[in-house]
Amino acid sequence: AQSVTQLDSQVPVFEEAPVELRCNYSSSVSVYLFWYVQYPNQGLQLLLKYLSGSTLVKGINGFEAEFNKSQTSFHLRKPSVHISDTAEYFCAVSDLVGNEKLTFGTGTRLTIIP
Amino acid sequence: NAGVMQNPRHLVRRRGQEARLRCSPMKGHSHVYWYRQLPEEGLKFMVYLQKENIIDESGMPKERFSAEFPKEGPSILRIQQVVRGDSAAYFCASSPEAGGRNEQFFGPGTRLTVL
Predict the structure, then answer these.
(1) d(Cα B50, Cα A35) in Å, to the nearest integer?
(2) I need a surface site. Which of A23, A29, B6, B92 has the fewest CB within 10 A?
(3) Rounded distance, CA B58 to CA B103, Å?
(4) How far apart are CA B3 and CA B11, in angstroms?
């Protein structure tokens, strides 16, 4: 069984400041890792994903994430946030083999303060 | 290329009624997933379907819930005799191929309210 933990349910950040959203996972098998963003009353949009190779992954809207196998983490970062980054962010995992379903964390609500 | 379409966007039902949620995947996608998002929670997997086949329904409640993805037409998530606890946002996602590495494209969701 897999699980994803997002410890921070809400993160307020001043505009143009850096931000890190934390994600830790637990799995008995190797996984793929994803970050999705959900804007109010919308579906989820993929920000970035880690499949293999370089542990630093760059995504859309200036976001990046780093896979750390020893710490089973996949934290999301952005060096300078904008008002438009206000949204809910979900970390998710899926199995390498079979089992295409995504297992999601409970989400982190990022609020940008002008 | 239109994205994943879901309708209705909002659905209100009284306890005991039936709810039917529709999902049209992206063009060329034959894999459909349904997830449920309860208030203040993340998304929980419900069911994974390919055309005319249920591949994984491990997240579906044992009673009152069913899903189908016919050869023609949208995928349908059906909830019979709804209860207040069924109030949630239901999201559909689609992908072009099987395999966990593939991006799932999400629809805007159907927000079900049970009175």
Answers:
(1) 24
(2) A29
(3) 21
(4) 21
pLDDT digits (tens, 9 = 90+) for A2-55: 899 999 999 999 999 999 999 999 988 888 999 999 998 788 999 999 988 889
3-state SS track over chain A:
CCEEECCCCEEEEECCCCEEECCEEECCCCEEEEEEEECCCCCEEEEEEECCCCCEEECHHHCEEEEECCCCEEEEEECCCCHHHCEEEEEEEEECCCCCCCEECCCEEEEEEC
Q: CA-CA distance, A57 to A75, in Å (whole number)?
A: 10
Spell out which residues of chain A touch residue B58, defining contact as CB-CB under 8 Å. Answer: 101
- Judge: B100–A104 Cβ closer than 8 Å, yes or no: no
Residue % of chain B over a pLDDT of 70: 97
Q: Residue B87 has which token pair?
A: 């109030």
Only one residue has tokens 């997997």, namely B45
- The residue assigned the tokens 């200036």 is A62
Integer CA distances (angstroms), A72 to A31, A56, B41, in order: 10, 14, 22
Q: Which of B35, B48, B106 sits opposite A100 (nearest CB)?
A: B48
**Residue B112 corresponds to which tokens in the numbers above?**
């079900």
Does B109 contact A at CB distance below 8 Å? Answer: yes
CB contact under 8 A, A100 and B31: yes
